[in-house]
Amino acid sequence: MVPVKVYGLPMNGSVARVLACLEEVDAEYEVVVVDLHTGEHKRLPHLARNVAQIKRLIGIFFFFCRLTALQSGASFSGWRPDSLWIRTLHCLASCVMLPIVFQGLVVPVYMGGTSGLKVIEENLEKLKEIMEVYEERLSKLKYLAGNFLSLADISHFPMVHLLQETPYGSVLDAYPHVKAWMAAVMDRPAVKKVMVLMKTFG
């Protein structure tokens, strides 16, 4: 089988999520680094890639994930009846985690700047409110969509991993079920491999 080409930086949450899914189904892939810092993603030849082909690849990829999951007995059924609720919470969590990661990790480490403490504090408070909902959910279920791993869980690990790389990762300590859930996700061999890639290509 021809390896899937994944364009981007593994440190990017969306790229890491795709890589984790590919690892979970033992698919061959090749990371083609696209340097966002220099704006490579806005220039040729990246823009010249056939968008229609990329969309078809995405469709084939998710079909492949679902089919392989069924064959292996695993579950990647992120599209359950409650998946809209899960995806909405994922968006909320990412939207409030992202400013914390940017100000707490990207600005001081990669840009040599000073963290915006006000932005961090505001979003930490928002994150705590959201984590209360997660804690309640995960006190009843092992994973977000039920007692099985799904795309909903895999989707969360990149941003949580980056959050833990900041001085503010301890915010999750107050939520034992959330910590146990994410520890289980991050303990998967596929996710461990991607976390190494995130650091290597960071």
UniProtKB/TrEMBL annotation:
The keyword Transferase applies. It catalyses: RX + glutathione = an S-substituted glutathione + a halide anion + H(+). Gene3D superfamilies: 1.20.1050.10, Glutaredoxin. SUPFAM superfamilies: GST C-terminal domain-like, Thioredoxin-like. It holds the Pfam family GST_N. PROSITE patterns: GST_CTER (PS50405). GO terms for biological process: glutathione metabolic process; response to toxic substance. Belongs to the GST superfamily. Phi family. This is glutathione transferase.
